[in-house]
Amino acid sequence: MRVAALIPAAGSGTRLGLGPKAFVEVAGRSLLGRSAAALAPHVAEVLVALPAGLDLPGDVPARAVTGGDTRQASVLALLRATDAEVVLVHDAARPFLPGAVVGAVIAAAREVGAATAALPVADTLVRAGPGGDCGTLWGTLTPREGLWAVQTPQGFRRDLLLAAHGAALADGFAATDDAGLIARTGGAVRLVPGDARLFKVTTPGDLALAQALAPVWDAQVWDAGGA
Length: 227
Ligand code: CTP
Ligand code: MG
Prior knowledge:
GO terms for molecular function: 2-C-methyl-D-erythritol 4-phosphate cytidylyltransferase activity. This is 2-C-methyl-D-erythritol 4-phosphate cytidylyltransferase. InterPro entries: IspD, IspD/TarI, IspD/TarI_cytidylyltransf_bact, ISPD_synthase_CS, Nucleotide-diphossugar_trans. Helices cover 32% and strands 20% of the residues. The two termini are 24 Å apart. The protein has a single domain, classed as Spore Coat Polysaccharide Biosynthesis Protein SpsA, Chain A (Alpha-Beta Complex), CATH 3.90.550. The radius of gyration is 18 Å and the shape is globular. It has helices at residues 31-39, 71-79, 99-112, 158-171, 179-184, 204-224, and strands at residues 3-8, 25-26, 29-30, 45-50, 63-66, 86-89, 114-120, 148-157, 190-193. The chain is α/β, with parallel strands linked by helices. Residues 8-15, 21-22, 49, 67-71, 74, 91-93, 200, 202 line the site of cytidine-5'-triphosphate (CTP).
């Protein structure tokens, strides 16, 4: 089955505050360039959704489409631009992507139809009250057992994901990820162990972590011939 990597990279990076986030560089390479390079060896083609009016940097081996106003709209534009049987959706904002996770998500997507990288939640969970205090809603009322934090890549049979996007569009339903759209239509989603290094660069604190990790990551990829 032909596999395509779809990278939503059309966001504005509001929380980071440095312009469109996919173009922000860490140790000399953009977040998008890092994500595309990690996926390229595993797939037949890489497609990227970009903000309107921006072009792909020369060092990103991919085909570009114009993204939409939301992540969901950007992924739908990407889905419509490929005829691959299996698609891997991966945020440009997650630059440190181990090859073993890519392989495991592709295998699970082929088997089940939908799969995502995810990590068991390690922190105590609380729900904040209106003023930010949580008091009586402390972690015992929000047990973390069985809870996973969802990452990307997420893998799908393309026909399943297109149908789930179509249903969400028709209902005006919005989700922050694609596996959530499959689950909403009653489809199974296989959880595949992700990686702590797959964190999403969202805030300035995340960027500081990425800058600290990049030299170690780059040395490892160089030594091992792939992460
Ligand atoms: N994304 C996209 N199209 C959009 C919005 C987001 O392709 N209209 C992409 C982003 O480029 C990113 C991924 O979806 O790779 C995850 O989104 P997020 O981390 O929220 O990035 P931004 O939307 O750029 O950041 P912010 O929400 O802080 O503005
Ligand atoms: Mg966003």
